[in-house]
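Following up on my earlier thread - several people asked me to post the actual chain instead of describing it. Fair enough. Here it is, all 269 residues.
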Amino acid sequence: MLIPAIILGSLGIIFGAFLTYFSIKFKTEENPLLNHLYELMPNANCGACGLAGCSAFAEALVEGKVEPAKCVMMSDENLQMICSLLGIQPGERERYVARVFCFGGNNAKKRFDYKTIKTCNATNALFNTTLECNYGCIGMGDCVKVCPVNAISIDENNLPVIDAEKCIGCGKCVSECPEKIINLIPYDKTIYIACSSHDRGPAVIKICKTGCIGCGKCVRVCPQQAITLQDNLAVIDYTKCDNCGRCVEECPRKIIFDTSLKEKQGILA
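Reply from S.P.:
Thanks for posting it. Predicted structure:
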């Protein structure tokens, strides 16, 4: 029993010595630039940049694989410092905000109630939707759960409400929504149409009190010709929209919102 123990002990010492030698010989020196960049990261690890976290993002910056502005949670001051360290220009950084393109909620007729698994994606996988409208918000809050900055809540109308001042435009809620009724628009564009239905007007009227009926009134009054009807739905071209608000006043269904109006901010953000 003694000899095998000695042999095993000797082998352990030998292998340990080899591992120590190779760990020293092939040790990778830490890049001081990488450490500086990581210190300037928001350390939220939200994944909005498409990478695993802030550490992975810092490594990608050193390797020149991503632009610093790709991090939507980074402060402007830290962005400037990182660009200075990398010797590059920060460039323009346009802010985006998520908007909910649906105002159905409790105003939309339900096919049935389903409360067994309370997630939008599970409901969508099983039934497509619980609503008569195939394009409406299911309202179970998957978008709330994935928001890294707690900018989304569900209101009394059973719809997501987005706090535009908290929203960082990461797009995680956009990806998570199975009905694809959350979209990113430029922060400085305050007008949006809260509907995603492509059903014809008569069908919409039967199943939703607040759906777009494709009447085209908003199209006709827009002085910038920024609104068009696409498959029965009014759509805004934000490269043309100047926030004039004419469409808001004209919409008979009252589902075009101007978030710059204080009286609207308590209803929809």
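The longest strand covers residues 96-100. That should answer part of your original question.
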